[in-house]
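User: Predict the complex with NAX.
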Amino acid sequence: MPEKEPIRVVVTGAAGQIAYSLIYMIANGDVFGREQPVYLHLLDIPPAMGILEGVCMEIDDLAFPLVKGYVKTAEPKDAFEGADAAFLVGSMPRREGMERKDLLTANVRIFKAQGQALDQYAKKDVKVLVVGNPANTNAFICSYYAPSIPNENFTAMTRLDQNRAQALIAKRLNKSANSITNVTIWGNHSSTQFPDVINAKVVEPADSVSVYDAVKDTKWLESDFIKTVQTRGAAVISARKASSAMSAAKAAVDHMRDWWNGTPSGKWVSMGVLSDGSYGIPKDLVYSFPVTIANKKWTIVQGLKITDFARSKLDLTAAELIDEKKEAESICSA
Ligand code: NAX
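Assistant: Here is the predicted structure with NAX placed in the model:
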């Protein structure tokens, strides 16, 4: 069979800690498949070019057959030219004691500029995953400044939160993480997010049971479990003195792989996507919903039960996103 044409994959913040794990997994075929060659477009800022040079030496030394070449650049035009997929990681990371809101002013301008560059140079069907925080609002701004690209092509990462929630339930039940399915992260990738296991299942070899029935501890599920997931990022920073990197890169891989290849029948994943008003969430917020994916298009799962307990949590995180969006819009139009 003839070799496929390489696709062009952008990683911004390419000299940073998340990218260091992410680039390996893209180059290895974990995202786009073992038969899909890639051309890496690596963007960072001028002071990071020396580090990026070292990263590129290591890409050479990986000697992976799928990597057909790379561009290392501080120029958005060169980074986004002809892009098929883009991981927007580059931004200022959250440091100990810093709330994500503090990052907004610093980071939102980066995503305005990158939206404009995507609009001008990327393919119109480019798939954009925003990882850099505040991820939901950055994804909204990026899409807003790229009007020639459909807004469903911009998504924000809440997969790390989903993976954290799945892993926590799995540990509690002494199961493997992939036996826990249909966990939903609602809302913002922040401490207001709602990790929801009301519709989640534990898949046993022969059957499946609901997480609530398996755990048999509603109090824990509706208090400590939620809090632990909501504050996991801060806990990692406090222990590691640096934000989650290996697990964030793996989550970015999971997100883009599922977007590219689709979700298995009966299973959903969580992604920050532009709200269409589903579940009473205001339109035009990038809000994390449960989605299924087919033919590289995501669809919000409809008809899930929203209890009164869940309703207040969905609305709280939406309110935070409304505030963030207002602030971001005023920064961008100043
Ligand atoms: P690092 O500081 O290690 O790397 C960031 C890189 O971005 C640096 O090399 C920096 O020079 C580069 N950069 C800064 N401005 C840029 C620009 N305008 N264009 C291109 N590159 C630029 O941070 P890292 O740990 O890799 O984290 C990156 C981002 O991911 C942060 O915003 C962080 O908060 C966010 N995260 C998001 C997560 C999520 O679940 N959505 C979880 C992990 C992480 O906290």
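DSSP finds twelve helices and 14 strands in the chain.
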